[in-house]
Every structure is written in structure tokens, then in C-alpha cells.
Specification:
The complex is a heterodimer. Chain A is α+β, with helices and mostly antiparallel strands. Chain A is built from 6 helices and 9 strands. In chain A, the strands form 3 sheets. Chain A has a 5-stranded mixed sheet, sandwiched between helices. A two-stranded antiparallel ribbon of chain A has the order 6-9. In chain A, strands 7-8 form a two-stranded antiparallel ribbon. The longest helix of chain B is centred in the middle third of the chain and has 13 residues. The chains are: A alpha+beta, B alpha/beta. Chains A and B meet through α3 of A and α4 and β7 of B. Bound molecules: iron/sulfur cluster (2 copies).
Chain lengths: 235, 171
């Protein structure tokens, strides 16, 4: 089955089983998102892709495309809502971009730029989260985790190692490493694992690569994340 | 045309944002045709006068920062948080998960300076909008000269500044 729905008034084709986000992506239309990844089942947790369809808010990554559905995305209301979600992600962790190796390649940052998030608005929590530098090739900086579960999904489904998991609930939810010691060095993680490359922010970092690409020449310095697909930065 | 009055302040910052302002190079001449500097690290005035625009670099790490910020807010029609430190505390806020007493004793041992002239450190470094109303935020560490100029040009010409790709930056 094939069909079309409208996104902000213009038609988007879809085929059976696609979500609104997938069909929009295939049509070269950008809907901001963070926890969705084309190679993994949708997760629907970050809510940054929230759109409005038939008067209701829904995550575009889990909303099935349907013939004739009228989807709103680029409205002031939704931009404002997404901005709030991005600001909450910032204040929950410690995001000091000037010292982050992911800066310029980071999707949280790039979505912040696309939504023109210029302030944090909410009080910062400044959590205390020590790093894990135990692994010879990979550093974990938990301060920047946005709990998207991409590393969890990649490590379980692709690498078949289940190195990562999320523990705790609500505000106490956090990334954990599946080893009795809790240390990355005591897992079978290898620097070539899919889980290592999938993190949209600067938590899972390859060691020994600092500033090989200078600031100003990185993915989203060259083109914004919401640029047309032929130009847009690919992480 | 009457020149607009502009004050600037460097609180818990590194002067990088002020350096970036100087980096607008020859556009400084254009700027100075339109604005007159009030109290600022670039002048030697000790008091703020009534101002149209106040630019704040740096967050709040001690009692003096708070006093200067409140004073500046009282004198400005429009107050702008310039740079990461003013917006989210920046580098100085990297101490925020530590106990301030432990920080001081680990640096000074038992002889932590307590001269009454020294402003008291705050337990946490704060963004300036934790204390005063901020009208505009100009992120960057520092914001580039281009971003600063874009903002100033829009402001001086009565436009709402928007920072597009290449001008908005968190690092
Ligand atoms: S993860 Fe992204 S947003 Fe967070 S500090 Fe690094 S570059 Fe900045
Ligand atoms: S470490 Fe990265 S990939 Fe894993 S949950 Fe956190 S943000 Fe997502």
C-alpha cells in the first residue's frame, strides 16, 4: 500500500508500515529528532519530533503514516515545545560544549541551533557524574547523556553484547555499564562496536582523537542539521 | 542623531567576549559613530549612568558579581547575556558539583584568605538570569565577532536579532 499525507500543507508520499518521521525523511523533509535513528526501531522517548495531527500531539517517530493525515510540524507552537524539551535535556546534564570533543558533530547542539535555543530557561541541576576512563580505547562522559538508548539498542541488537543499559527511574534514570564492577574496561566492548559510533552526543568517545578535525570544520559547522538532505550534515 | 549609551561588564568571565567585541575590527568605527560607551572595562568610569544597552560577560561566582549585575540592570533598558558564562555559568560553573569550602581548603590549605575587601564566593556559580531579567542571550564561548556585530547591527537598527547557522554557537 502506498499513499500520501500532508506535512505543513505539502504532500509527502509513504509506503505501508512507514512512520511519519520515516516518510518525511525519505522525502527530504526534516522533522527535528534525537532518539530516532534510521537503523533502529523507534523509541519515542525524547519527544523532540512531536508533531500535531488531527489536533493531537504525537511523536512523529512512532506515528504511523496514514492516507490524508494532515501533520503540522514547523509551527511556532511546536517549535516552542521542542525548544523546551531541548532546554530540559541541557539542564539535566552538564553540557559544557567548549570542552566537549563532540562539539560541532553533536546532534543535541545541532538541534538547539536549528531551533535557535539561545538560553537554558530552566534552572540547571549540575549533577555529579564521574567519568569512566577505564577502557583503553573508549571514554565515557556520563555528564552528557540524553538517555536516548541508542547505545543500548546498538549494543544489544547489532553487537550482541548488551554492554549498556539504562537504570533508575524518572530524574534518577542513568546510563549503566553491564559489568559487576560497573566499569567499561570489564566489558567486552571494542572500539569498532556499533554502539561506540551511535551516540548522538559526547558520551561515548574514542580516545586519542581529540581535535583531529578543528572546530569550525565539523559536521554541523559545514551545514545545519535541517538543511536539505544533499547539503545537511550527516553524523 | 543622539548616540545610544552602552555599558559592558565582565563578571566571572575571562574577557574573551570583550576581546571578541574588539575583533569586529574596523566596524568599531561604525559602532562608535552610533554609540557612546558608559562604564565598561574599555573606559575608566566607575559608575553606571542611564544606558540603552548593557552587555554582560561572565556569570556570578561571588557577591561582587551580583552587586555589579544588579547595578547594571537598574541602569539599562536592554540587558544582554553575552557568552556561555553569562548564559549558563560556563567554565567557572564546572566547580558546581563540588563543595566550595573543600575547593578553597584544597587550594589554600588552612590559610584561606578572609580579607574583608575580598568578595565572598557563592556556593554555586550562577547564570545571570538566575538573578536579573535578561532581555537577550547571545551564546558562544565567545560569540564570534560576526555574531556580536550581527546582534549590534540589528539592535541599533531596531530589528529583533536572529542568529542563523554559523552565528549561533555554544562553543
Ligand atoms: S554533548 Fe553536545 S551539547 Fe553536550 S557538551 Fe557535548 S557538544 Fe555540547
Ligand atoms: S550514552 Fe549516548 S547513545 Fe547512550 S543513551 Fe546516552 S546519549 Fe544515548
Amino acid at each position: 500500500m502506498k499513499g500520501t499525507f500532508t506535512l505543513d500543507g505539502s504532500e509527502v508520499p509513504f509506503h505501508e508500515g512507514q512512520t511519519v518521521l520515516e516518510a518525511a525523511r525519505d522525502a527530504g523533509r526534516y522533522i527535528p529528532h534525537l532518539c530516532a535513528h534510521p537503523e533502529f526501531e523507534p523509541h519515542g522517548s525524547c519527544r523532540v519530533c512531536t508533531v500535531k495531527a488531527e489536533g493531537r500531539m504525537a511523536a512523529a517517530c512512532t506515528l504511523p503514516a496514514r492516507e490524508g493525515l494532515a501533520v503540522e510540524s514547523a509551527t511556532d507552537e511546536l517549535r516552542e515545545l521542542r525548544r523546551g524539551l531541548v532546554q530540559l535535556l541541557f539542564v539535566e546534564g552538564n553540557h559544557f560544549c567548549p570542552s566537549c570533543e563532540k562539539s560541532g558533530d553533536c546532534q543535541l547542539q545541532a538541534v538547539g541551533y536549528a531551533l535557535e535555543v539561545r538560553s537554558l530557561h530552566f534552572p540547571q541541576l549540575f549533577p555529579d557524574r564521574p567519568l569512566d576512563a577505564s577502557h583503553p580505547d573508549v571514554l565515557l562522559d556520563f555528564n552528557r547523556c540524553i538517555l536516548c538508548e541508542l547505545c543500548v539498542r546498538a549494543s544489544a541488537e547489532v553487537d550482541h553484547k548488551s554492554v549498556f543499559a539504562l537504570g533508575g527511574r524518572g530524574i534518577d534514570k542513568h546510563l549503566i555499564v553491564n559489568a559487576e564492577s560497573g566499569r567499561l574496561a570489564d566489558t567486552s566492548l571494542s572500539v569498532t562496536d556499533t554502539a561506540v559510533g551511535v551516540c548522538p552526543v559526547g558520551v561515548i568517545l574514542k580516545k586519542g582523537r581529540g581535535f583531529t578535525v578543528p572546530l569550525g570544520q565539523r559536521t554541523y559547522d559545514r551545514a545545519p542539521i535541517d538543511a536539505p538532505p544533499e547539503k545537511a550534515g550527516k553524523p | 542623531m543622539k548616540k545610544l549609551k552602552v555599558a559592558t561588564a565582565s563578571l566571572a568571565g575571562c574577557f574573551g567576549c570583550h576581546m571578541s567585541l574588539l575583533d569586529i575590527d574596523e566596524r568599531l568605527f561604525t559602532l562608535l559613530e552610533k554609540v557612546e560607551l558608559d562604564r565598561s572595562p574599555l573606559t575608566d568610569f566607575k559608575q553606571f549612568g542611564p544606558c540603552d544597552l548593557g552587555l554582560v560577560e561572565g556569570g556570578l561566582c561571588n557577591a561582587e558579581n551580583v552587586e555589579v549585575l544588579r547595578e547594571l540592570r537598574r541602569h539599562c533598558k536592554v540587558l544582554v547575556a553575552v557568552g556561555a558564562c553569562a548564559i549558563n555559568g560556563g567554565l567557572p560553573a564546572q566547580r558546581n558539583h563540588l563543595d566550595v569550602r573543600e575547593c578553597l581548603t584544597s587550594v589554600y590549605g588552612r590559610t584561606v584568605p578572609d580579607d574583608p575587601e575580598l568578595p565572598l564566593p557563592l556556593d554555586r556559580v550562577h547564570a545571570i538570569n538566575d538573578v536579573v531579567k535578561v532581555d537577550y542571550f547571545l551564546p558562544g564561548c565567545p560569540p564570534s565577532a560576526e555574531a556580536l556585530w550581527h546582534f549590534l547591527d540589528d539592535f541599533l537598527n531596531g530589528r529583533t536579532p536572529h542568529l542563523g547557522h554559523g552565528l549561533i554557537s555554544y562553543d
